[in-house]
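Lab manual, section 2.4: Encoding a predicted structure.

Procedure: take the sequence of the chain (425 residues), apply the prediction step described in section 2.3, and record the output as structure tokens. A sample record is shown.
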Amino acid sequence: MTGHAAPIDRVLREVDRAADEIVAFTSEMIRIPTVNPPGEHYEDCARFIGDTLRRLGFEIEYFAAEGRPEHTARHPRLNVVGTKHGTRPRPTVHLNGHFDVVPAGEGWTLDPFGGTVRDGRIYGRGSCDMKAGIAAAAFAAEAIRRAGVEVPGTIEVSGTVDEESGGFAGVAWLAEHGRLSSLRTDYCIIPEPLNVDRVCIGHRGVYWFEVAARGHIAHGSMPFLGVSAIDGMSHVLQAVREELIPALAARRTAVPVVPDGARQATINVNGIFGGQPVDGIQTPCVADVCRAVFDRRFLLEEGFDATRAEVEALIDRVRGRMPQVSYAVKDLMVVHPTRTPDDSPVIAAIESGVQQVLGRTATRVASPGTYDHKHVARIAGVPHCVAYGPGELEQAHQPDEYCRVDDLIASTKVLALAILDLTGK
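Recorded output:
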């Protein structure tokens, strides 16, 4: 026991000594407004992360998402991966964080891209979700180096793009091109903000789909000569509200999804459009097309095939209520649920770190929304992946978003101990 305690104590002390650097790194990343959409300043942020990782002793690689339609000259999708080799090439522990952030929105009382540090909190868009997590990952590895502890395996830290829009030019691209793969990666930790004493073992599934209703255009003064697609869509919305939502509310997953309301299957109308633009010049027409986009979150126990079949059956029932309207369902995005094996070493490593650093038992949770775990599990083929990092889940995408400094330092310590555990040190 004594032989293990000394290096652990040294590593934890080095995290404390680096606290100001960790906070400063987080603040500087926040000041780079990597807003998605459209994907602003991605290259600036990737280079900044890369330069910092290089200063911390990592070998740096940059990966432009060539072949992705969102990767353009105006908004290049650039990912960065830092590698630190130990005394042996394996096991490899990969810590991944996305540096894109959602738009600031309204309601801020501070500069959303100011990186303000006040009263023990770092404020700014992306402070919680999840630039603090990137800082925790980088300095977890750095604390091990500064403590003079050699690890048997390899440590990787990546900063990737577009998680907020699906991650297809980020982690998915790295996985598709073999840079993140079970052939070279043993464990993956994604420092998303699920609260500092919780380890996230997966997420629900997502089915985004569009329903298009088509009627017949006519002059607005003679609507009886047309067929309103908006009226047709109203039958879909009614069926969703009166038939589908009650059915979904009765289904609950055994996966520990948080908050509690997300343990049931859900559906949300993301957007709807039909007829003339509301703010445009008035035109006297019966709407011949109405489109609605739905966000269906499905449970591991439901599966995608049954989820889609249920939507198709609902639309079939609606067709009989207004036969003059045609309906079509279009798949927009499908994300299957993920769950880390209960006996995964990466879960045990995080739980052990939380116990040592915080003195309490970590809670296993699953995310109500998806994150890049989906690509790590399904494309890279790495089953041993969890999310763990600083920040409170409820702060994500909020005005005056913040991350507590003490949570940032604590999670850096937990990640450092997890790295030591997973590499066999």
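Check your result against the sample. The domain at 2-203+337-422 is CATH 3.40.630.10 (Aminopeptidase).
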